[in-house]
Amino acid sequence: MKNRLRLSLEKSINALFPADTARLLKSLYFGDKNYMDKLTLERYRLAGVMHVLAASGLHVGIIASIPLLLLAPLRVDRRIILTLGVAAAALYLYITDMPVSLMRAFIMFALYGILSVLSIGRSALNTLFLSGALILLMFPDELYGMGFQLSFGATLGILLFHRTFLAMLAGSPRFVGNAMALTLSAQTIVFPVLYFHIGEVNLAGFISNLLVVPAVGLTLVASLGTLAVSPFSGALAAAGRLITHGAATAGSAVAGLMAGAGLHFAAPPAGALLLPYLCYLAPLLPFGLPARARLALLSLSLAAALAVLVHSRPSLPEHADFPVIGGHVHILARADHALVYGSIASIADARDLADHLEENGVATLQLCIPNADFKNLISFGYLVKASTVTGCVLDAGYTFSRAMTDFMEHLGRDSVRPDIRPLNRRLSDNELRGLCETLFRPPGKMSPRLKVSSPAAGFPFLSKLFPGWSGHSSAEKQALSEP
User: Fold this and answer.
1) Would you list the DSSP string of 212-246?
2) Burial 291-309, CB ≥16 within 10 A → b, else e
3) Are strands 337-341 and 319-324 parallel, antiparallel or unpaired?
4) Is residue 234 within 8 Å of residue 242, measured between CB atoms?
5) Whether residue 58 sits in one domain with residue 13
6) DSSP code of 174?
7) Range of the structural domain that residue 394 is part of
8) Both 257 and 362 in a single domain?
């Protein structure tokens, strides 16, 4: 039953929406990020909004709010709306593979709904801690999991500090102030949890959450409406499709823009961040400070954190060698993109190289493999799985093998088509640098050899109305026009 429902949904999504939007919707509907390509996931991660793609409380909240949006204007009893909201969330949980992250969110919401319907102690804090106890009773190991700590901590931060932050932002528009207060209050606990588990700090989320979260919410709701009306009205389905695709495209564009803002920091020094973090918490203490003074202290803490993070950010030299067994690989790095040229004969070296690149802020990677033997392909295959690879140049002298088949499959999952060409294995340092400069191509500069679909392809009627419009950016047009 569940599989038939999922297959039917997937078929309808593929038929109604453009490919990029369809992949996003399937990721949201089924709680599975594997529908998304790695480059898109990396952009959302660097933008600090990866949680909108993960099966989480955000999606449960959106799904559960649909009965409220439909029935509240009709003045339907609140208890009926809550009951239908719990039922909608349960159906969403059923359609997915019931990941623990969604079960956590569902338990929290269902418990709140049941207590509200029965008019029993509706304290949000009591509900949060009771649901936390139930989750740990069912999944004791969740106590040590980052997902539980993030969801529980973010909710606790919102319940404790949202009003205080909202008071500081009283002069801003209501929607902006409320959204910013939600982000600020959640980050009071999210910051230390993320730093403890993965050693990262991301300041981009303060801005991107204001835009990406509403865009993804609109995408999800509009797509559900489109699926509902598509059997009855082609015109309404076309309008819903346009809204869904527009919201999804806008959210992805903001995520891509914020990913390139350089506000994601890996392995920053904990000691240097302690004082800015204490300043961040200081406005929450009952000092009797006026709202403007609290806001000034908060702004100072964020500015100090940014200064510390930028000053301590590691970076690779433009040309560098990384030692491996039997020699070294050459790295050409600019901004957050790098090209790796050479041979890696062991997975241990590939793992060390992946860690080295991540610690130095490399987000996307190109590979140049002059020797495609078994050991190299296995090691570079690990690098493909561990990194976000946007291109690969492979020596034309390779031979077919199981290792080559596996390597091609790894590239295929990232939608990377290898560029097959003869590569000279004996190059002087200057020749090697020159070759790397020639092959270096950041992800924004697409290879003209790759077929790039036009955003207008999803809406043929727009192409008819505006014959000269393709939907490509100027950078994409330039890349596609290169010989």
Assistant:
1) HHHHHHHHHHHHHHHHHHTTT-HHHHHHHHHHHHH
2) eeebbebbeebeebbeebb
3) unpaired
4) no
5) yes
6) H
7) 319-439
8) no
407 close to 385: Cβ distance less than 8 angstroms: no
Residues in the chain: 483
DSSP annotation of 412 reads H
Compute, in degrees rounded to 10, the torsion defined by CA atoms 74, 75, 78, 80.
-50
Contact criterion met (CB below 8 Å) for 159 and 125: yes
Tell me the HSE value of 121 on the side-chain side, using a 13 A CA sphere. Answer: 7
- In DSSP terms, 337 is beta-bridged to 334, 364
Half-sphere exposure in the Cβ direction for 227 (13 Å, CA)? 19
Chain-centre distance for alpha carbon 86? 27
Q: Which residue in 355, 88, 28, 351 sits closest to 213, CA to CA? A: 28
Is 444 contained in some domain? no
Taking a C-beta distance cutoff of 8 angstroms, is the pair 179, 206 a contact?
no
Residue 102 is encoded by which pair of tokens? 């969604």
- For residue 376, the domain's CATH number is 3.60.15.10
Residue entry with tokens 């909108």: 52
The pLDDT tens digits of the residues spanning 210-231 come to 999 999 989 999 999 999 899 9
Closest CA to 459 of 271, 272, 245: 245
Host H or E run for residue 155: helix 146-168
Provide the number of structural domains found in the chain: 3
The residue type of 378 is I
Q: How many H helices and E strands in the chain?
A: 19, 8
Kindly state the DSSP code that residue 425 receives in the 8-state scheme: S
Q: Which of 330, 314, 323, 399 is nearest to 366 (CA)?
A: 330
Query: Of 228, 247, 266, which marks where a domain is finished?
Result: 266
Amino acid at 202: N
- CA dist., res. 396 & res. 160, Å (int): 61
Query: Could you give the CA distance from residue 295 to residue 455 in angstroms, rounded to a whole number?
Result: 42
Per DSSP, 284 falls in state G
The secondary element (H helix, E strand) that includes residue 264 is strand 264-266
Backbone angles phi, psi at 256, to 5 degrees: -65, -40
If asked whether residues 157 and 74 sit together in one domain, one would say: yes
Query: Do residues 357 and 335 touch, judged by C-beta distance below 8 A?
Result: no
Q: How far apart are CA 333 and CA 357, in angstroms?
A: 9
**What confidence tens digit (pLDDT) does each residue in 293-350 have?**
888 989 999 999 999 988 888 778 888 899 988 778 999 998 889 999 999 989 999 9
pLDDT of 431-472, one tens digit each?
888 888 988 988 864 333 333 334 444 444 334 433 444 444
H or E element: which one contains 340? strand 337-341
- Residue showing tokens 């898109």: 40
Residue pair 51/212 in contact by the 8 Å Cβ criterion: no
